[in-house]
Automatic annotation (TrEMBL):
Pfam family, one: GMC_oxred_N
Domain Glucose-methanol-choline oxidoreductase N-terminal: 115-138
Keyword DNA-binding: no
Coiled-coil positions: none
Keywords for this protein: FAD, Flavoprotein, Signal
PROSITE patterns: GMC_OXRED_1 (PS00623)
Family as reported in the entry's similarity comment: Belongs to the GMC oxidoreductase family.
Descriptive protein name: Glucose-methanol-choline oxidoreductase N-terminal domain-containing protein
Highest taxon in the source lineage: Eukaryota
Amino acid sequence: MRQRIRRRLVLVHPFIFLVSFAGRQNKRFVFNATEFPEEEEYDYIIVGGGTAGCPLAATLSEEYRVLLLERGGQPSEYRSLATQDGFLPTIMNVDAYRSPAQGFTSEDGVRNARGRVLGGSSAINAGFYSRAHPGFFEKGGWDMALVNRSYEWVESAVAFKPSVRTWQQAVRDGLLAANITPYNGYTVEHLVGTKIGASTFDGRGRRHSSVNLLAYARRTNIRVAVHATVEKILLSPVS
């Protein structure tokens, strides 16, 4: 069953099971929501262009026509998101309407920030990258061979070996002095002890986020609407 989207973004679609996979960046299919036609048909409509939404859209577009909706703008609209130097200014500027970071308080009372921009929180965070504990996937019955191939897919676009400078050395040495052992060196694996994890900032300090994964999308099958507000979601059974 295909779905239609109108200017007011009233969505009709079947349930979507979200699975994260990956790719690289291409903005030729990214438009402001006001630039979309009055009516269009899609096989899948994904609400939220964040850390999971971008790779999911890229994956589905290999076989289906996909619309990805993001309430924020493109990362290129915010200079502070481009490099690691902009990390602190970004998360400290959490105004209610325009900033790419939105402040919130977690259930245990901790103040934090989440992304309000294409790429989601992967576009505003500190850039530390590590794989999850294998038990997380094994408990859910996932195919670990497929999980590992998917990791490699993601890492080829967004994960880099960081430079170990004075601050990183101090943190590493402090953890080892506190007997957080063994020392595992550089690795993306989830291991007990101290390690040097990967970074989503490359050697020049440029940020890479889930937006980069959209480059794996089939351009003829995907459209991305930024500054898009979803007013209502109507779920109907698949006929």
